[in-house]
TrEMBL record:
It comes from the Bacteria. This is Cupin 2 conserved barrel domain protein. Pfam families: Cupin_2 (PF07883). Gene3D superfamilies: Jelly Rolls. Residues 41-96 form the Cupin type-2 domain. InterPro entries: Cupin_2 (IPR013096), RmlC-like_jellyroll (IPR014710), RmlC_Cupin_sf (IPR011051). SUPFAM superfamilies: RmlC-like cupins (SSF51182).
């Protein structure tokens, strides 16, 4: 059994985001991300479903053209294929993401990455 703490080693990088995988199990991947306030907006269109909760900080996202404001404790479900981008994020924002891949797609991804 492995334990951990989401708030340990949670200092933000100088720019962008730092993501670490906490758990990979079959087609499920759980990640923790720490954001700096210096994030370049990038549009994501992911092949997996993602449920994300903002544990600390605040953020403004553009989700398929709709502005969504998140504060600590808020969560959001982003179905696969839904375009989204971070417009603004506070320094040290801490996210937890639960990604659910299609089983076939995940097996191919795991084989390529060696995980």
């Amino acid at each position: 059994m492995r334990t951990g703490n989401l708030f340990v080693d949670a200092l933000p990088p100088l720019e962008g985001e730092r993501t670490e995988t906490l758990l990979t199990r079959r087609n499920l991947v759980i990640e923790r991300t720490v954001s700096s306030a210096d994030v370049t907006p990038h549009e994501y269109v992911q092949s997996q479903d993602e449920w994300v909760v903002l544990l600390r900080g605040n953020a403004i996202l553009n989700v398929a053209g709709e502005i969504v404001e998140l504060n600590a404790g808020d969560y959001l479900f982003l179905p696969a294929g839904l375009p989204h981008r971070i417009q603004h994020v506070s320094e040290g924002a801490l996210w937890l993401a639960v990604n659910l891949y299609q089983i076939k797609e995940h097996l191919i991804s795991v084989r390529k990455s060696g995980r």
